[in-house]
Amino acid sequence: MEIVAILIGLGPLLGWGLFPTVASKFGGRPVNQIIGATIGTLIFAAVFAAFSSNGFPTGMDLVLSIISGAGWGFGQIITFKSFEYIGSSRAMPITTAFQLLGASLWGVIALGDWPGVSHKIIGFIALFVILIGAWMTVWSENGQAANSKNLRTAVILLLIGEIGYWAYSAAPQASSVGGQTAFLPQAIGMVLVAVIYGLITMKKGNPFKEKVTWLQIISGFFFAFGALTYLISAQKEMNGLATGFILSQTSVVLATLSGIYMLNQRKTGKEMIVTVIGLVLIVVAAAVTVFIK
What residues form the membrane-spanning segments (predicted)? Predict the structure, then answer.
């Protein structure tokens, strides 16, 4: 059972780790990527719901689940936009760091996490280490990339996108249903945001008629696989929330490295060493924030 639990827990490593690289590989505009990815997620979630006995939420639980998915859709649109400025291999560690910061601060402010002074000191040191790790992943040997206009623009975009990711993680906490039950309505919320965005950008070309949009459905399968395996892994009878979360964060390593090697977002030898150290710092510090009691 433990081996099975670990394998399921590593599902996000493959799903979330390859999702940004696959989406970037297929290409297209952010609107093509978000429409295709959310439709792929909806298909995956619908198939899962058809073969499970989780039921479908109603009332406020349904509303919160849809809001959660809509939040992710907004955040992911911004993230796809940031790929155009700095590539997925640099954007993913930054957005992961921001999501970890957002989730941790929300836990401290709203949920009473890190109750003692020593807990807060350790926790905020860990958050600082996460920021250092993110900076290391975009460090440039020639000193230009880390101060470029594109990087500053991408960081601002990713900070804005964090609003959506915060809603994605925070809204379900007010719901009384489990993550697997909320999975399908979350996907519906994602598609709603994607369709609205598609209609808004219609003047630049109809994304619903472009082939690349429908190819991006495949990237949505990767995201959905990562999301579902995380929800299963986080259950008490599997890995539990803390271990499941840590295992899921390993996805930033694959997302970064696959972007470097599969999308030719190359780095020098020194930059690769610094990047790998930065990724390790992010994952380790994330683990610290989870286990502070």
Answer: 6-23, 35-56, 62-80, 92-109, 121-139, 151-171, 183-200, 212-232, 238-261, 273-292
